[in-house]
Amino acid sequence: MKKMKTIAAMMLTAALAMTSLAGCGAKTTETTKAPEAAEAADKGTTGAEAAESAKAADGKTYKVALCLSGAANDMGWCQSAYDGLKLLESDYGCETAYTENLTPDDIEAAFADYAANGYDVVIGHGYEFGDPAIEVAEQYPDTKFIVTEGEVSADNVASYVSKCEEGGYIMGMLAAGMSESGKVGFIGPIQGASLVKIMNGFEDGAREVNPDIVVQTAWTGSFTDTALGKEAAQAMIDGGADVIGHCANESGTGAINAAKEAGVYATGDSYDQSELAPETLLSSSAYHIPHVVEVAFGTVADGSFAGGIYQLGMKEGAVSVAPYHDLESKIPEELKSKIADKIAAIESGDFEVPCDTKPRN
User: Fold this and answer.
1) 196, 165 in Cβ contact below 8 A?
2) Which residues share a beta bridge with 144?
3) Domain limits at 33?
4) Are 292 and 162 in contact (CB under 8 A)?
5) pLDDT at position 32, please?
6) Residue 157, strand partner residues
7) What is the pLDDT of residues 259-287, one digit of tens each?
8) Disulfide engineering: 350 pairs with which of 105, 124, 275, 345, CB 3.0-4.6 Å?
9) Looking at residue 225, which CATH number applies to its domain?
10) From CA 37, how far away is CA 155, in angstroms rounded?
């Protein structure tokens, strides 16, 4: 199996390797006041009704803050969490705030600032927020900290991990089934357990469909640099890959653009990214982070919050596969049937996608 060398550097520092979603650029913080109770009630959602019950029981409006490593409108990983925050605002009547484009060095200060200002819940979106959450949580025991893709827990810290490898596996099956050259590529940003498992899942899924498939892989070293994503994808395309997958956030849009310009297929990640390249993007692995955020916050609202590490996948509605949209007619019925059967097996528990977090390159 051919492996592509890392684009940004031959080696990452230990700190960088432990950062799954490091962002860059200017930090932005915004706060939104809670909507009027009547507006929340008008929505008539189950979440809203549950929220009204919880609020009546404790007599408070919750203040919830979200910390992001990238842009809240990235059409991917960060936007999915921002959508979750807005869901808490509409369904639970929360007063919300968020800070985007946080670097690893900024996280503890952002957490502490929100906790010191009376926020009941602080959410860090990405497992690089885990260690800072533990550090700050000890100083602010009355604040609940929630970390997505985290591997940490304490009395007031809970991690919620999406089984993103399930989506990666299906995208790998799709890529291998659509490849005519027998070569596909997959691009990641910065190595971290929550990302390595997606890349490995993609490779495993591809090999189920075609045991002889050649899977080229690369780490760009950035979540936001679209030029690096495009460069990595172009190198794979030049090497014969005719389907490109990614789990690289904004950097991944560069990979999609490279595929679009070269006239080859691509798969998306985190969000249904079809609108970025309707004639190129076969499907996307979608992570329902808004659902994860609401599940996690619901334990605070109903008083059942407990520190721990919780896994949510297709079975729990946290991971799914986006529609094929305009390209459905291009995908062989046999391949669609095989993918549908695999998704059903994952959802039923009859098949478990290996969660392999060890880098293979």
Assistant:
1) no
2) 121
3) 14-163+289-312
4) yes
5) 53
6) 145, 154
7) 999 999 999 998 899 999 999 999 999 99
8) 345
9) 3.40.50.2300
10) 31
